[in-house]
Amino acid sequence: MKAICVYCGASPGHSPRYADAARGLAATMVNNGIELVYGGGNVGLMGVIADEVMRLGGRATGVIPRALMDKEVGHAGLTRLHVVKDMHERKAMMADLADGFIAMPGGIGTLEELFEIFTWAQLGFHAKPIGLLNAAGFYDALLAFLKHVVDEGFLKEKQATLLLSDASPDALVSRMHAFRGGDGGLLPPEEAAKII
Fold first, then answer.
1. pTM for the whole thing?
2. Signal sequence: where (predicted)?
């Protein structure tokens, strides 16, 4: 993996453990020569991970819609900052630039980005690894809910395994390196066509 797209909050959250996790992920990525691709802001966890990647000598590419330049305060100190038309263009560009995806703690925007890229994997539109950095157990309830979705027959178990989870940035990135998309849970083309 040369680049990982990280979805995370424009807020730091209440616990300092979330910012610690962002700095830990930044160090793991830089130590492994992996570029950061993210939403381009300099506030909240977005700013924490971008600042740490740059401080450690790594590369960071931001993608931000023009309308959010002020609200999310576009980061001026990145390797590259792409200012795009809208959220659709933002998410598409981030996906194109990345070899994998990690969701850190965040709000509904982070969840929306995560579930879109997870859905694309389920449908077979990409075979890139997707991870949850489960800092301080932030995603425990979500993982339990996804198990419930499987138990109730709305998600196949092998599709659920497309979403990797770990509290350790090093362990998560290592699992992502070992991930083989192929047919490891992806719908056959004829099933994907039925859903679309």
1. 0.90
2. none
Handedness of CA 65, 70, 75, 77 (dihedral sign): positive
Q: Which amino acid makes up residue 73?
A: V
Burial class of residue 11, CB neighbours in 10 A (0-12, 13-18, 19+): middle
Report how far residue 8's alpha carbon sits from residue 43's, in angstroms, rounded to the nearest whole number: 11
Residue 169 belongs to what H/E stretch?
helix 169-178
CATH topology of domain 3-191: Rossmann fold (3.40.50)
Q: How far apart are the first and last CA of the chain?
A: 29
Sign of CA dihedral 171, 176, 177, 179: positive
- The pLDDT tens digits for 152-187 are 999 999 999 999 999 999 999 999 999 987 544 444
Domain ranges of the chain: 3-191
Q: Tell me which amino acid residue 186 is.
A: L
Structure letter (DSSP) for residue 97:
H
Structure tokens at 161: 């395994």
Asked if residue 67 lies in contact with residue 59, where contact means CB atoms within 8 angstroms, the answer is no
Give 40's DSSP letter: -
